[in-house]
Structures are given as structure tokens and as C-alpha cells.
Amino acid sequence: MSTDGDSITTPLVRGLLAALSVLGISLAVVVVPALAAQVAGTASSATALDAVLISLNVLVLGHGGGIMLSTGVIDGAVTLTPVGLQILLVLLAALSLRRVGHRLELVRGDGVLRVGALRDAGVSLAAFGGTYAIGLAVLAAIGRSADTAPMVTSAVVSGALVAVGGGLIGLLWSLRREPTTAVPGVRVLELLPAPYGAVARSALLALLGLFGAGMLLVLVLMLTHVPAQSALFDQLDPGIVGGLVLTLLQLALLPLLAVWALVVLLGGTVVVGTSTGISLAEVQTGVLPALPILGALPEPGDLPGATWALMLVPALAVGLGAVSLVRDVAELERRERITAWIAYPVVVVVAVLLLAGLTTGGIGDGRLVHLGPAMGTLVLPLLGVVVLATGLVLAVLATDLVPWMRRSIASLRERVDAAESEERGEDAGRRGSAGARGSTDTRGSFGSRGRTGGAAADGTDADGATDEDAADDEHPSDVEDADAWDAWDEGAEDGDDQDEDPDADQDDDARDEDARSAGAADDAAADDAAEDPTEPPADEDPLSPRAGR
After folding, report:
1. For the chain, give me the number of helices (H) and strands (E)?
2. How many CA atoms lie within 13 A of 523 on its CB side?
3. How far is C-alpha 535 from the geometric centre of its chain's CA atoms?
4. What is the DSSP string of 197-235?
């Protein structure tokens, strides 16, 4: 039949056949291990039919439905979903509808949707979802027994949700095309209008990081509680085949425990029975099913206050998503950027709440009636972590905070460098002033000597002041200002420059020296005359009559 949009028969049939194939694979996934366990369990009284009925109940639980138990040990509804099995069923539906999308050729060779592509995709998805839900309801009705009874209504609803969700993912996946030299590539999230494609990518990155944080915590607890898990496994003594089935069951529960661990990391509380709870503050546990993986739970008691620092791990995952969002919307208009910044935390919070809600449930009407996250304890811590982490990233990357801090640091560094340079300049000036003071004293003494050539031989000038006093008057020794020192040096140099005739200066010095010598001789003669009154005067002839007397 043609797939050009003129007929809807091909999309309808393809969707119906895809649903039947996925149901068959899903049934095999749960029935084969159950039959293997029944055959290998020699101590068990269960028949092959009982194994098949149990597997059908597990299949309903894996889709998110519920079953009723009346075994005497556990009575009541069981609504706890093995999330690992549910993820596998969604993946099977996505792969099946991806093949349907390729066969319907929804995208032309040039990368554009063909005419009627959306109609054909919708018809195939509706046929797939309807057929799958009806088929699961039939299987749930077949799975009734004396001890178990799957809830048909919940099977229909949960089956339709898994089929439609997985099928929609598969059809969108089929639209993806790698780019070529002639045709641009097609990316699924890029089909969303801006900025919602960037919000979806960032939220998906954050959710993967959050789930990884929870899984990491579970693995750490399992590695640190190996002896307790080994003891539980030895008590069950399932054998080789039973051990493989038990391992598969624990793998199906592992993602559920990862979500519980994520709730604890976000600051919420996980209930594992009546009057119990696991949080970052304390651990209170009661009687639990004898599953080895549950031996990884912490011992009851109060936890140290430093345990609250673990909330930084999910905050880091949310921050990484926010960083990706800021980079993706950097080139958009301001209004679109603000829309993305608001939508991102909303999407993350809603997705985490939905994921936590899917992992809640109960086993019977006894102590295990409440299992999973206590939603009332999760909302406020979740809002705080997501909003604060997103706001911090936006404040650093989406505002002018980082450039302002860089400018402030650069300005502070410049002021420090300027202050250090000024201090070094002042030190150099003080050292230069000290050196100039010493050289000025020497020049000043010689200059004073030249200028006081007419002074008395005893070192006093006409006013009676000594040479030392004159030097003190002329040399600004008590002046602290460097400019005064420089002015004094310039005056001294000017005085030296005025003595342009060195020969004349030497003659003047010689005459001054002769005059000082003559004066000294006269003073000595006067002193001798005063000591001996009989001594004739120096200018009198000793042979004169007066001398003879």
C-alpha cells in the first residue's frame, strides 16, 4: 500500500502489529525467568501454570499497575512499581515505533516532513497505544488466581501510558537525520520552538545528573554493606537459577532505589514502612522484605550534621543544566532568555516530583503499606535546591557580576601597584636628598671660603661673626624641604661659577697668606716687648747711645 498520505491503512496496521510484537517480547521477558525459577526450584510446590500467572502479575506491576494479594502472609494491594522493568518496557515501545516511523518515511530526502506525515504518525501511535492497552488488560484478566488478582483498570491505564509515552519517543526519534553536504540535519529537540528546545535539553541533562547522583549513592551503600547482603542471600539459598532470577528482580528494583536515594539527597524523607523514615538527619527502619539489596540500607540511628553537605551533589547537577541553558540561549532576545530561565527550574521540579511519585507504593495492608518518598517532605527542599542552584548560575553567568568582579580586581591591583610605585619613589627621593645634603656641605665650605676672603685672619668677619656662624647662616642645614636644598646647591654652584679667573684667585690667596704671616710676626714682637722692658725696640740700633745705656 502507498505511504504518500492517501491511505491510513498502512499506518494503522503497522501500529497494531508493533503493539502485538512489543506485548509478546514483554511477556517473554517476565515469563522465561519465572519458568526457569520454577523448574530449578526443586523445593517449591509451584507448577508451571503458577509461574506463568505470577509472571503476568509482575508484568502488570512493571507497567505501573496494581495487583491484589491474599496469601495469608501479605494481604492487600501491591502498588510498588519495579522501575527498572518499566524503563525496559518503555524502551521496547520506543524502538518499535521508531521502526514504524522509518517505514512510513515521515521525512523526505531533503529533511522536510512529507505531506500527511503528522496524520500517519498519529494514526500509528493511536493504533499502537490502543492495541497495547487492550492486550495488557487481557493478560491481566488471564493472570487471576486464588492468591493474586491483577487490577484490570489499572492495567489498562498504565499500559496506555507506557505505550503512548514510549511510542511518542520512538516516532520523534525516527525524525532524526544526520546532516549532509546538501541537506541539513534534523535534531528532535531542535524541532521545538525557541527557547523551549534549549530548556528541554538542559532539563534532560539535569535529570540525568540527578538520577546519576542517586544511583551513585546506592552503589556506595551496596559496596559498604556487602556482608549484610551476603548474609541475606545465604539465608534465601535460591540456587543457581533462582539466584539469577533474584538478581534480575533486584536489577528491576535498582532504579527505584536510586530515585529513593535522590529524594534523600534532596533533603526529603523516604518511608520504608509504618513509623519509619530515611533522611539526612536520621535513619529509622523496621521489618523489611528479605531482599539482599535491602541490606544496603544504613543502620538505624542519627546521622552526623555533616551529612547535610550531600545536598550539594544534586545542586551541582542542577547547576550543570543551568550552565548549559545559559550558553544555549545566549544569542536569543532578552524576553526569550528570561522565559527560558523561568521555565528551566519549573520543568526540573515537576519532573522530579513525577519521578518520585512513580516510585511510591505499598505492599499489602500491614507495616509496608507505605513505601517510597514522603512527598510532603520533598517539595520545599527540592524548590530550594533547584531555585538556588539555578539562581546562582544565572547570577554568575547571565549577569554582569563576573565582569564587574574582574574590573574590581583589576582596579584594586592597579591601586596597589600605584601605591607601591609611589612608596618606592619616596624612598628613592629620601636617599637622593641625603646624598645631595652631603655633597652640598662640601661645596658650601669651599664656596664660603672663597666668599669670605676679606675676613679677618682669626676667622671673624666685620660684624664679629665667626666663619662657622657664617657657614651656618649660609647653609640651610635645618631645612627639611628638598627644594630648599636644591636652591642652596644652585646658589653655591652659581658662586663657584662667578670665580671665572683661577689665577686671580690664587694671587688673592697668596696675598692673604702674606698678610696673615706679617700680622703674626708683629703679634709675636709685641708679645716679646711686653715680657722684657729692657729690650730695645726692634727698629732701634743696638749700637746707639741709648742702647749702650
Report:
1. 16, 8
2. 8
3. 116
4. HHHHHHHHHHHHHHHHHHHHHHHHHHHHTHHHHHHHHHH
- Write the pLDDT tens digit of every residue in 335-369: 999 999 999 999 999 999 999 999 999 888 888 88
Distance of CA 493 to the CA centre of its chain: 70
Q: Is 112 helix (H, G, I), strand (E, B) or coil?
A: coil
Residue whose C-alpha is closest to residue 81's, from 107, 60, 102: 60
Task: Name the amino acid, one letter, at 105.
Answer: E
User: Mind listing the pLDDT tens digit for each residue in 242-300?
Assistant: 788 888 888 999 999 999 999 999 999 999 888 889 999 999 887 777 788 888 888 88
In 290-400, alpha helices (H): 312-328, 334-358, 375-397
* pLDDT value at residue 400: 74
Cα angle 16, 21, 25; round to 5: 150
| CA 321 – CA 328 distance, rounded (Å) | 11
pLDDT digit string, tens, across residues 75-126: 888 999 999 999 999 999 999 999 999 898 888 777 677 888 889 999 999 9
Which grid cell sits at 222?
551496596
Task: Find the helix or strand (DSSP H, E) in which 122 lies.
Answer: helix 117-142
Distance (Å, whole) CA 199 – CA 192: 10
Q: Residue 415's Cα: distance from chain center in Å?
A: 31
For 242-348, strand residue ranges (E) read 270-272, 277-278, 282-284, 301-302
Which residues are bridge partners to 150 per DSSP?
A: 67
Using a cut of 0.85, tell me whether the model's pTM lies above it. no
Which phi and psi angles does 149 have, rounded to 5°? -150, 105
Q: How far is CA 107 from CA 6, 115, 180, 537, in A?
A: 16, 9, 15, 147
CA separation for the pair 301, 275 (Å, rounded): 14
